Amino acid sequence: MMMQQFLPLPGRTVIALLCVGCNSVEKKIYVHLNYTVPCVRLLNATHQIGCQSSLSGNVGVLHVLESEDNLDWVLSKGPNPPYLVILEAALFTRSIMMKLKNGSNRVAGVAVVAPNTNPTEPFSPYTTCPNENTGVYTEKYDPAYAHCNVTVWNPLGNGLAYEEFDFPIFSLKDDNDTQVIRQCFLDHNQVVNGSAPQYPLCAMQLYSHMSAVTDTATCMRRNDINFSISPEGVCDPLGDSNVWASSRPINTTQKGHKNSENVIILDSRSFFFDIAPGAQSSVTGFVSLLAAAHALRNATQEAPPNRTILYTFFQGETFDYIGSSRMVYDMENNQFAVDLDNVHSVLEVGQVGLRSDSQLWLHSDPVSRRNSSVNDEVRKLIENLQVASKDLNVTVNQPQASQPLPPSSFQRFLRARPIPGIVIEDHQSVFTNRYYESMYDNAEYLNISYPSNLTADEQLEHITETATVPFTLSPPTVTRMLYSLLIKSNNSWFQEIIPSEFMSRLTEKPTNFYVGVANWQSSEPTFLVQYLLANLTGTVVNVTKEDCQHQREDDKDKESHHLYHYMWVQGSVPPNGTQRESFCVRSTVHLSKALSPAFDPLKEYTSTEYSTWTESRWKTIKGRIFLVASHELEMLTLGVGVGVLVTSLLLTYLISSKADILFSSGREPTNATY
């Protein structure tokens, strides 16, 4: 690693004689980057993926890559390796990244400039066959359908998110920081007519050291090693909470027998940690289901259906079906409110596009339909959906009977037993989503935009074209949800439907749908969906704040907490008032564990049946730029420093050895008297 000389950026000065105002000196040397989002390390039963820096951070001379042809300067020709490569989003391709990976002894890291608008070219860092080894289509179930042999669902997937890089990769927001980086490169590092730039050179340092290595079994074993008073783990299992609600109350402390009909996926993943908007891959599906649950609330209360509708939002599905596999496991082991015998059928809403020209496709499993009773129920589901689609003026179709299910939570139910079910998607075979599981799967991709002259509250209520698609049922409700999830959750509507103590969890940016690690606090999307579902399906009850927070109607009520969940929410400020009018919402919304059984309770970290994904821990994530001197100047500085040190030691020795002479004073005779 190159030495970091105390050279200021242009227009700055350095005073290094005394350590008075060291912080000021540090600020003059470095320019810290304000918005940096790293690629982090993930591990499973067999290997590790992702990125990391060395313990002290990776340092490299900045090089802004102009084209793939320009890679030679980084990989072979450039005289000042290692290089830290700045990539525009259009150059963040598998071809370029793999070349940088293979030449990593000359590459200190990569910083990708995230564009303010989506690129014209498709981009999906996911694999071509999502959740290939943990769905229902295995060699045991039907070899013909295993490994996406029939349909490659995500042909645009480049698999970058599943590669391992031994250098850090950061995403940089295209703002003032990026302009400073570009200017620093132009002033100091730009290659002119093929000649090498002169020192000092502009350099960057990225910190993203990851604690975990090898695989999940290794890191979990290291977690259990405790040699200190305050032990620090090295990794955590991915996980969160599933959100579910029922059309009529179910006793959650006793195992009931209620039929389940609706299941949906809630998850997304991007290449970069903390940037996973999931607009089409996740938001469209569960916004459609939330709107349906809202529309069905009054209908099911006035004319209760024969079967209870269970609205389920799974977390962690991108990572080998964490949420759905956990619920199926709990149902099989009597750890959930219902069991698999209660499940009559599954209707899952996947990627539904929310575009005016969208068609819906009703996917089913050809293997389980070989069972006549399952086939009969699937046909009834299809007929009912076709009838309903006519009322909504929506076109629905069926793919070929031999086509398998797309990646879906329903596959985990089928893995347990044959169950009738349909998966609703906007694609017949391959995904129509051009940015599947990428940072570009955002509001812009769904054509959600607002006139510039609108206030935040006016944007919240502004009905976009996306919200008026026929099958969204309630455009005003849908437009609020889309704004809250894809633009910012900190808005007047969400402030009304959450408790006051959770105000700090609302943000000014799009929701991050990355599942995160299992801990005591639910993730951002789980928190938002929980309160959305309660608001859309619950009932306002006239109880005191104390009773509401104690999960009861009054102090004599001992039963309601088994059936309902009570939430004391802020409410709105009346037109002529100054304080919010809070109230209590009673709903059937509950949370259940979305942690792979491989971790709890099985502790089988090499499992092939359940997800084994973990996320490495880290201490510091940051980036900064500065100027570095030439190697010769570094050596000269080092030599002068060593010379000064040796000289000072020699002088100290000489002075010390002659101290009695140099510092002696005239002494009086020993026999002097007074």
TrEMBL record:
Membrane topology: Single-pass type I membrane protein
CDD domains recorded: M28_Nicastrin
GO BP of this protein: Notch receptor processing; Notch signaling pathway; protein processing
Record domain Nicastrin small lobe: where: 38-212
Location in or out of the cell: Membrane
InterPro entries the record matches: Ncstrn_small, Nicastrin
Membrane spanning residue stretches: 635-655
Keyword terms of this UniProt record: Glycoprotein, Membrane, Notch signaling pathway, Signal, Transmembrane, Transmembrane helix
GO CC annotation terms, alphabetical: plasma membrane
PANTHER family: NICASTRIN
Similarity field: Belongs to the nicastrin family.
Protein name as catalogued: Nicastrin
